[in-house]
Amino acid sequence: MLGSIKKDGNSWYVVFDLGKDSVTGKRKQRRKSGFKTKKEAEKH
């Protein structure tokens, strides 16, 4: 599973790329947010 770490204001979040939806062909992503530091986000 590929992902990226980004900052939104004062908190960090992780976006996971789950691949394409077989029906619609659109990208599927999952976002987990609320991390105070970049290192904290990297652990997840």
Short description:
With 44 residues, the protein is mostly beta strands. The chain is built from one helix and three strands; from the N terminus they run βββα.
Helix/strand-derived class?
Answer: mainly beta
Shape, please?
A: elongated
Give me the Rg, rounded.
12 Å
Q: How many strand segments?
A: 3
How many discrete domains?
Answer: 1
Helix content: 10-25%
> Helical region count?
1
* Overall average pLDDT: 93
Strand order of the largest sheet: 1-2-3
Order of helices and strands: EEEH
Proportion of strand residues? over 45%
End-to-end C-alpha gap: 12 Å
Main beta sheet: strand number and arrangement? 3 strands, antiparallel
Instruction: Give start-end ranges of low-pLDDT stretches.
Output: none
Q: Helix and strand layout, with pairings?
A:
Layout: E1 2-8, E2 11-20, E3 27-35, H1 38-42
Antiparallel strand pairs: 1-2, 2-3
What does this structure look like?
The protein has 44 residues and is mainly β. It has one domain. The chain has one helix at 38-42, and strands at 2-8, 11-20, 27-35. A hairpin with a 2-residue loop joins strand 1 and strand 2. The longest helix is centred in the C-terminal third of the chain and has 5 residues, at 38-42.
